Amino acid sequence: MTLNRPAQGWLLVSQLGVVLPLAHHTPPWTLGIFALCLLWRVGIYLGRVARPPRALINLLGLGAILTLVGVMESLGTMSALINLLLLAYALKAIESTTRADLTVVVITGYFLIGMQLIHQFNPAIALQLILLTVLNTTPLLAQYRPDTPLRVVRQAMVMILMSLPLALLLFMVVPRLSPIWQIQSPALARTGLSDSLALGDLAQLSRSDRLVFRARFDGPPPPPEARYWRALVLEHYDGTRWQANTPPPRTGSRPDLEHWPSGGPDTPWQAYQLLVEPNPNPWLPSLKGSISEDPQVIALEDQLLNWRVPRHSRTAIALLWPSTSAQAPPLTEAARQRLLQLPAEGEPRARAWAEKLRDQYPDANARLNAIMAPFSQAPFRYTLKPPALGPDPIDGFLFDHQAGFCAHYASAMVFVARAAGIPARMVSGYQGGELSPSGQLLSVYQFNAHAWTEVYLEQTGWQRIDPTAAVAPARIEQGPEAALGEEAHLLSEDAWLSGRGSAWSVQIRGWLAQLDYQWSQWVMGFDEHRQLALWQRWLGGLSLLKGVGVILAALVLLALGQLALTLWRQRPPRVETPVRLYRQTLKRLERLGAGILPGEGPLTHLARLRRGHPELAAALAPLCQAFVSLRYETDSTDDKGDVEQQLKAFRHHRRRFHRALRRRKPAPAGPE
Fold this sequence. Notes:
Oligomer: single chain
Protein name: DUF3488 and transglutaminase-like domain-containing protein
Region (Disordered): 241-263
Transmembrane segments: 29-47, 59-90, 102-118, 125-144, 156-174, 544-568
InterPro entries: Bact_TGase-like, Papain-like_cys_pep_sf, TgpA-like_C, TgpA_N, Transglutaminase-like
Pfam families: DUF4129, TgpA_N, Transglut_core
């Protein structure tokens, strides 16, 4: 059987809906071929062009395959396969003339809809997939069960919604297997921290609103001044850039509470969980001293955490954080020399100032306070648009321009501290985060990127010193938006982020973050361990016999439920409803002295009213005719849609009649 016109129209709409979400993962030439095929399909629908010859379709298909082979290396294997499926989808659509062809196109559309899960899967994407599945089902329904467009869409929605319980059951009971292979998305090369840092780098990073991770604490989250998420320690400076060293792994297989430098068995530990976004780099931002027993994580000597293998998908990790830190072991002579290293030349004014402070303040604590003192005074200011600094950037920043971002302040602090004889290092990571309305979930974005200083004092060990906090306290307590003031719009290249700091936007982002976190925990994070725990809680364990029994019982229940729903939907239309409504109308007529007599039928009653109450009869006539048609001229074999249309007309006439009664003044009945 050939395709009817409604099915062809729905096919055009569904093709457009299926392909649009994949457009930003598709090269222009693929989109061009798809657009050409879509236009051809429009011409067929309008009767302007004929179906293309098979030879032309084969030639286009062969050309597409050869082109994909040529660009596969640049696209990646998975992207090339998606493009191949997309082209097959477009070419098959323009030659479709029968039901079998339509079925192939629709099934291919389902595969393309599923391909969106390769890139991301969140609540918004889940809703989008359901809507696209509904849209992709409409061509089949329009072909096999022709009806009005609204009814076709409604039928498709009912079908998809009826399948969701089965999908949920399969999600929970089908064994969760570890992936045999993973796809490394090219998107992972986007903006992020680097293992080297120049003075202006973090200012550029802070123009990204990409999520880095979310943190959830068992108990109240730490105060803003403690939310320093350490990722890298940068020690070597060549006069232009700071370079991160790679500290060796901590001795021992996994960290334990008794020997970790940040505390011991009596240290108050706070548990928290990170939900980390994909990242091609190995470092794991964490609060200082955090530990994890997860085998995916390596603990490093500088109290840093690294992934054993970079994560290419969203990953949850459980950690412990000590609210107090123990003193670090003494520095070795080699470490001291490394932490005092400076270029042989350059920055003469900064070196001279450091030498002066060293002579003036023999005590390291007093010397450190003297270095920090100018940062809390004008004219130092915090800005994302610092001026060019020249060949001696530290001198230019400290003595000429005195305006910069966190990397400027941290770099200058480390340089002067080292020149003054105090071992120091730069730490980069993230500071702060955005709390959800519940106060338990903290979202950290790329614009929270930060750099600060750690100095080593003989009496106390490593101490965090953040000159940015002295220059712009609001940056630490309230976030970069508050510190930047009129420059807050520079935090992202996206125009909509100019309203990030408003109360309503913060509230909405907070609730969305909470929803996204729960989705990641219970949908994306529903792995084999959670599934086994679920089986253990429900059935006391998992066995083959229990699994088969549960699946069969659930399938039977679902089948019975869907059968009951189908029978309910296919029930014959109720004619009792018009009877009840018509009797209510007759009661109102009875109060006017124009009621129906015992044994009198509707038409006989109407004829009697025409003799004694012509105005009432004229108003009642359409309602009476609609009632007679519904009550006496329909049966269970009539089309359900026609019956519903008659019932709709009956209700309409009833409303009009009641309005006419309200406008009429009651009058006693005349003699008959």
